[in-house]
Amino acid sequence: MKNTRREFLKLAAVSALGVGAGRLGFLGDAPAHAGALPTVANFEEGLKAKHWGMAIFSAKMTPELIEKCRTACHSEHNVPDIPGNKNIKWFWGASYEESFPTEHGHYLSEDVEHRQFPLLCNQCETPMCVKVCPTQATFQRPDGIVMMDFHRCIGCRYCMAGCPFGARSFNFQDPRPFIKHFNPQFPTRMRGVVEKCNFCAERLAVGKLPSCVEAAGGAIAFGDLADENSDVRKALREHFAIRRKPDAGTSPSVYYIL
Amino acid sequence: MLEKALKGSPRYWGTLIGLGLVVLLGLGFWVYQLTFGMKITGLNRDVSWGFYIAQFTYLVGVAASAVMLVLPYYFHHYKEFSKMIILGEFLAIAAVIMCLGFIVVDIGQPQRMMNVLLNASPNSVLFWDMIVLNGYLFLNIVVGWVSLQSFKNDMTPPAWCKTLAIVSVIWAFSIHTVTAFLYAGLPGRHYFLTAIMAARFLASAFCSGPAILLLLILFLRQLTGFDPGKKAINRLAVIITYAMCVNIFFFLLEVFTSFYSNMPGHIAPFKYLFTGIDGHDMMVPFMWTAVVLGLGCLVFLIPTAVRQKTPALVIGLIMLVIASWIDKGLGLLIGGFTPNPFETVTVYSPTVPEIMISLMVFALGGIVLTVLWKIAVEVRVEVEGGNLSMVPPPAVEAE
Ligand code: SF4
Ligand code: SF4
User: Fold this and answer.
1) Phi then psi for A174, rounded to 5 degrees?
2) What one-character-per-residue DSSP string does A62-114 give?
């Protein structure tokens, strides 16, 4: 059942892209901004994995680089820029204490103390957000990615209570007026639904790495956690890494190399 | 019997019109929320549940309160409660309707609500909560209506009705247990993550629910002379007192576990609620009011001689209701979401529209309750004779 649903979503994505771009073609320069539309051939090159994961070389993530990745992610996914605490965040930077609230001693190395850590949805192996969602609007794909169906979400926000990482945002208002650079290749959301990072599932499907990974220029290793020859496993083999709140039991797929 | 709701004194209609106006006013704010989205609430990215869900939680407790009458009546044949039972069941109906109302106003896409059934997800406690709440509503409507009808026709209620009443007793425990599980199963929300959560919910439900019921009944007695009987009132007051003691005891268990273990995550919500963190101390006055009233009400409720005097009983019950409301209708949710997952404080306080929309739901419940209680009282008048609205209220408690 999961597979047919995935196939369907893929198909729906392709047709939505076609329609969206076609309609916008005579509205202005949006398609130009978006670049070429993916074709069937692109989808044949889609990246596959048993379980996608990420290892972040946190020492390399300067605030500037985090900002660059954030912008790449947010403009790719039409994430609105809403001021205040009703904001939407897919990718953002935070201090060590905020990122690892259960892990800090009194005396931190100066460099870690001042470091910014990029935060995003951990694409947990046993995600609480999926477990609590009453509509299966949040679901997990066989390759581990925790996805959202924005059209099914009823906006109950149970998933936000369930996620121990504050990875989810709710559209308290219509997000569209707050989108600076509209990307016609990715859906915008409506008010009243929850959203979060999707590990760039739409890019993996056409053989591209996630936007943040691309923007980080080597500071984020990405790949199949089940494949010992993958970039991410290589990075984890060679460096000591920690995960956020492992005691919450969700088993994050995002690792932080200190 | 419905026709009894259509004839009434100016006072009855006045009450309904007054409540109706509150509903209309709140409706305006709800339309405002539906138009602009939930940005009009004080909720935010970190405190994503607030006043609405807290009222929902509190009212689930009120709904479960009928069981404190039904259980002694059916399980222990405590007949003194016979006059009150129907009122308890009708209060439960009104409370569940308010619960559902608070869910509707809380969700971002209410028109998609049926998705919960269409895509039924047994993994989600919310799915089960919906089942048990609607089931409880159904049980109370059927049991309440059928037994009132039988009473009116001077017949014993059919046997299946008694069976359903017994089912509803067990069911009442489920609505509160399942609602507690909504919270208790969430990792990373330290204030919620406690095995005793369901027990605490039941204890606070079994004191606050019957307390509200008893206050309303005493009020009804003032208004109409409907007297459920002195023995019944005293017995219910005793039940409330015990439940409140257990409720406070359970809370202290939480305090002990958090502070003796000294685990930072478990202490932090208590700190936020009772002392404030980093100068964010908005909740502090509320929580200490709850402490003072919660302990204070016991002074009025525990000594039998004091409890049996109506004015003292009323004061004690009001204190109890306020204390338990602050604890569950405010502190529980805010404490659960503060500090946030980053162990920092994001302040939440409900906005005026949020409160007005809540008033709308409360007023809606008030209308349902007024109509149902009117029917119940009229039926009793018809059966037992006499026009209750003319019967003078019983002269000050003859001891
Ligand atoms: S980080 Fe939160 S939102 Fe992301 S998969 Fe884990 S529980 Fe779900
Ligand atoms: S807000 Fe949407 S995604 Fe989150 S639990 Fe509710 S229905 Fe599921």
Assistant:
1) -60, 120
2) -HHHHHHHHHHHHHHTT-----STT---SEEEE-HHHHSTTS--SS--HHHHT
- Single-letter residue type at B82: S
Total-model pTM: 0.90
- Residue A10 is predicted with a pLDDT of 54
CB contact under 8 A, B124 and A132: yes
Strands A146-148 and A138-140: antiparallel
Helices (H), B37-124: 51-64, 67-75, 82-106, 115-118
Residue B122 CA to ligand 2 center (angstroms) comes to 14
Crossing angle of helices B310-326/B51-64, nearest 10°?
140
Pairing of strands A52-57, A254-257: parallel
- Chain centroid to CA B128: how far? 19
CB B381 within 8 A of CB B227: no
Rounded Cα distance between B158 and B171, Å, is: 20
A165 lines ligand 1 (CB under 6 A): yes
A140 CA: nearest ligand 1 atom: 5
Residue B335: its chain A contacts at CB < 8 A?
none
Residue A137 Cβ contacting ligand 2 at under 6 Å: yes
Q: What pLDDT is stored for residue A25 in this prediction?
A: 42
Question: Token digits for B64?
Answer: 């479960």
* Interchain CB distance below 8 Å, A166 and B130: no
Q: What are φ and ψ of residue A89, in 5° steps?
A: -135, 130
Distance of CA A45 to the CA centre of its chain: 21
Strand partners, A169: A195
User: Around Cβ B32, how many Cβ atoms within 10 Å?
Assistant: 14
Atom of ligand 2 nearest to the CA of A154: 7
For residue B59, which of B149, B214, B176 has the smallest C-alpha distance?
B176
Is residue A147 lining ligand 2, measured as CB closer than 6 Å?
no
Q: Write out residues in chain B with pLDDT < 50, as ranges.
A: 389-399
ipTM of the complex: 0.91
Phi and psi at residue B326, to the nearest 5°: -65, -40
Eight-class DSSP state of A55: E
Q: Do A156 and B344 touch (CB under 8 A)?
A: no
Minimum CA distance residue for ligand 2 atom 6: A156
* For ligand 2, mutation pick of A136, A140, A156 (most atoms within 8 Å of CB): A156
Q: Which residues of chain A have pLDDT under 50?
A: 1-2, 17-32
Distance from chain centroid for Cα B243: 14
Contact A132 B109 (CB under 8 A): no
